[in-house]
Amino acid sequence: MKENNKKRVVIYCRESRDDYGENYQRIETQRDLLIKYCINNGYTNIVEIIMDDDKSGTDFSRFKDIRNKVKNKEIDVIVFKNSARLGRNQKEALAFVEYLEENNIEIIFEDEQYDEEMFGLYAWFNERRARDDSKNIRRNLRHKMEEGNLIIRPIYGYEKKGDNLIINQSTSNVVKDIFEKFSNNWGFEEIVDYLNKNNISTPSKARNYLNSKKTDKWNYQHIRRILKDERYIGTYIGGYTEKVSFKSKKIRIKEKDKWIIIPNHHDKIIEKELFDKVQKIMEKKR
To answer: 108, 122, 151, 210 — which has fewest CB within 10 A?
Structure first.
């Protein structure tokens, strides 16, 4: 243990809402447990504590800085709560551990023994658990959507109260104006110019979500998306996107027959007759 106090230690903590049913402690609690473990075992030279809060275990890009520190020979030991905190992608986990071992980095798990020969099995189990968790989450979300529960952000023209979509009087008037103008032979560019000249906030500016990209000026796509959106006639549409895989952040649009569509789900902003008229005009223009 005397030699341990000379080793440069990195404590790595990770928690994620994706760890279905396993996110039982605050990340600060995990940090405190690992600090206590290090001190009790003589690893007192803690050079860094990494807190990856709500980071997916399948994303190994989070270890970029650690790889650089290993390459520059700045650390000797990495301490994790367990193999699942390291990650839930078998291929990436094995490659990362191999990189650490090649550079003589000591790997420690606080609540399980690190075993080089057994780690591949643990990595497989962790990935399998991630896959099962992802299926459970998708199943639960789909059930909520099928019940008509609003689990998405409200679109432009609405605001959210509980699980209900409520019409926002200010932005809903803009939506009505766009539909009326288009139905009266205004072109996309004319509507865009009108909105920008009158300093009307774009959907992203009006919603003002934190950590979301905001567009200052209206464009063709804004108008087209609004005119095509059936939710303005009171129809709930959900479950129309999915991840390419549980390991990926990439999203794709599902076939329409797999969408969840519930007519008369919320108050409409646009009458169906006007909506249908606009669709016919758009089809002719196309």
So the answer is: 210
